[in-house]
Amino acid sequence: MSTGTRPALTRLVRHLPRAAVAAVAAFALTACGGGSQEAESKPSGSAESAAFPVTVEHKYGSTTIEAEPKKVVTLGLSDQDAVLALGVKPVGSVDWFKEQPYGKWPWTKDKWGSTPPQIVGERDEYNVEKIAALKPDLIIAQYSGMKKEQYDTLSKIAKVVAQPKGHEDYQAPWQDMTRQIGKALGKDAETEKLIAGIDARFKAVRDKHPEWKGKTVTVGEPYEPGKFSAFSPKDPKVIFLSEMGFTTSEKYRAALGKENIADLSVERLDVMEADRTVWLGTPDTEKAMRADPLYKKTKVHQGKRDLFLPYDSPDIGAALSFNTVLSIPYAIDQVVPRLEAIK
After folding, report:
1. Band of pLDDT at residue 103, cut at 50, 70 and 90
2. Which residues contact 310 (CB under 8 A, 6 or more apart)?
3. DSSP E strands: which ranges in the chain?
4. Which pTM value belongs to this model?
5. Closest CA to 323 of 124, 205, 171
6. Which residue has the higher pLDDT, 24 or 97?
7. What is the mean pLDDT of residues 181-207?
8. Is 34 exposed, middle or buried (0-12, 13-18, 19+ CB in 10 A)?
């Protein structure tokens, strides 16, 4: 089956090479020049200043941040959202959806305004020269696959807060990543308010739809004829649905194992059988799937319990993939009515 133009998301997350850091640390440390954006100065007696020093534990140890960060670079694919939500505009960030103008997502458009960040790499590929030129005092890499070698190199440029410890890369809960970011920025109290607000939104959905509790869900994306990706129960997209009351089947969990994404053939569509099956992609994706003879035989298709969500126009798939304190409210508004339409 043909799925039309492939969105950048999954292929970037799954298949981009994990290249070594672009230049040696010595060059980075001697790079001259500053970024195009300067962080707004704050009074020395601000509450944020009083919060420091802070120590943040992470995958590669711990990092002590002595003073309030003035210039922040984010290297996790969605880290910029939490930073923006806490009132800090990163001077540098990484690209993710290459088809989309950076910073044009509905949930962050107003926060970026007319000063988007300098792009300093893609998924787990960082341009050290560009990062050093921005002269950051804090580098954040939460939703990332940063390697120890990269961490060591970047730590010679600035303080680095790597992925949360105790989780596979790209599988830490959004709450954990948000708290790591909030602590690094000296904004613990504000962070807890943001998380509580999102928790309240999910609780409102669960209260309105108790019938969803315990119902199984699967999330996938066709990416070429005869093949699709299934996403881990710990992937942001599945976590989003889980917080509405849904769960995953034992067969689905077994098929994913510790992987964040499993690439399967259509002969394994049995893995995707559930009370609700969510597919991400384009309008062509849905058309091709519904025309596929093997898919027509699935119970979820025959029972009309499948849901096709676009990556853009509207940006539902992107919002689910980010699953941040900024994108979640937008995703709830877009997804809940579509789930409600499935009887």
Report:
1. low
2. 280, 281, 282, 283, 316, 317
3. 54-58, 61-65, 72-74, 92-93, 118-119, 121-122, 125-126, 138-140, 159-161, 217-224, 227-231, 261-265, 276-281, 306-310
4. 0.84
5. 171
6. 97
7. 98
8. exposed
